[in-house]
Amino acid sequence: MKSNSPQPETRNGARILLTGAAGFIGSHTAEQLVMNGHQVIGLDNLSTGHLSNLNNLRGNQNFEFIEANVLDEYRFNRVMKQFQPHTIIHLAGLVSVVQAQQEPAINFSLNVQATDLIARSAVANGTRRVVFSSSAAVYGDLEEYMIHEDSPTRPIGLYGAAKLASENLLLGYARSYPLEVVCLRYFNVYGDRQDPKNPYSGVISIFSDRFSAGKPVKVFGDGEQTRDFVSVRDVARANRLAATVNEIQSGSRNICTGQSRSINDVVQIFQSIYPEAPNPDYAESRAGEILHSCGNGGYAAMMLGFEPYVSMEDGLSDLVAVQNLANYSANFVSPARRSTVPKEAAAQ
Ligand code: UD1
Fold first, then answer.
1. 168 Cα to the center of ligand 1, angstroms
2. Per-residue pLDDT at 2
3. What is the pLDDT of residues 157-201, one digit of tens each?
4. Residue nearest to atom 21 of ligand 1 (CA)
């Protein structure tokens, strides 16, 4: 999917403050930034993120981790004063769409109030740019097949409403102060480190977990509903580009592949990886379910030089490989330890 169109110039060695660094998208973003020579301070309160997600960055001189809550204004401002970042990538927030609906006050404080705090601190400290993790949930249930940034925004729940409120706030700051703002509307992100344990987790994390355990997956409806699935590696690269492209116009950009795949397609790809897997069970459609969702990524290509590189087939094989490696490491007993493991335990 790589194109030959000219890439916009990017800044080298930028100082970047990354909130939500220990999360699913945050940890991949931190790795890509550091791998590309940027200096990163990662903040996370570890409520849903895990330190183990940052294992690859342990001891790296260009990465520092601080356990802190973004709503702790005093602490946040102190980090900002000391580090003086060129860009803040703000990924911390309430990630569960269901919890946002059930606990509106938490949704407001984490998904709106925290954004305002960050924008104020950015302005006060002369930070040049804020990149914000928004969501395709801002569009709600649109009739349009190919959603672009000028499509109407009619979120159907509080999660999407809070993301949209944050976008508007940030863009208001961009019009009022010398601050650049890029809001990235992620479509259905998948990849390793996404938690499969919640029934409302992303479908691919649930399927991957069940296929690897040899259990049947449950498909809601006839499985012909479609989504625009984008690999977390592409999303991390979009974050990096949004943070480091030299010239940017403030605004909102879709981060998607522009290709929709059905849930049956996803099942088929997993079945080709796990030929022995049991057949899926089909169940009633989820109430209020959107049937089709697909994004137009033209703006992100033009403004950020972002195009997705990872095909669904590659993304899913990659996910399975990483999962297998994690299972192998979890079960691996080093030769040094083996001699101390009781014989019965070692035999299992
Ligand atoms: C996403 C959100 C959801 C939110 C909706 C609207 C995530 C993970 N989900 O849903 O909370 O309400 O946007 O903004 O962010 N599916 C199965 N079997 C499963 C799980 C899912 O067939 O075990 C199907 C679903 O019915 C759906 C598709 O897979 O058709 C994708 O589901 P999901 O990953 O939850 O994403 P969205 O439906 O886009």
1. 26
2. 52
3. 999 999 999 999 999 999 999 999 999 999 999 999 998 887 678
4. 203
Which H or E run contains 230?
strand 229-231
> Mean per-residue pLDDT for 222-245?
97
- Is the per-residue pLDDT at 6 higher than 80? no
pTM (predicted TM-score):
0.93
Angle 134-138-143 (CA atoms, 0-180°, nearest 5)? 140
Where on the phi/psi map is residue 62: left (φ > 0), alpha (ψ -120 to 50), or beta?
Answer: alpha
Report helix, strand or coil for 8: coil
pLDDT digits (tens, 9 = 90+) for 107-134: 999 999 999 999 999 999 999 999 999 9
Of 101, 147, 188, the one to substitute when testing ligand 1's pocket (max ligand atoms within 8 A of C-beta) is 188
Enumerate residues lining ligand 1, CB below 6 A. Answer: 97, 137, 160, 188, 200-203, 206, 218-220, 225, 227, 263, 286, 289
Where exactly are the structural domains of the chain?
A: 15-338
- CATH no., domain 15-338: 3.40.50.720
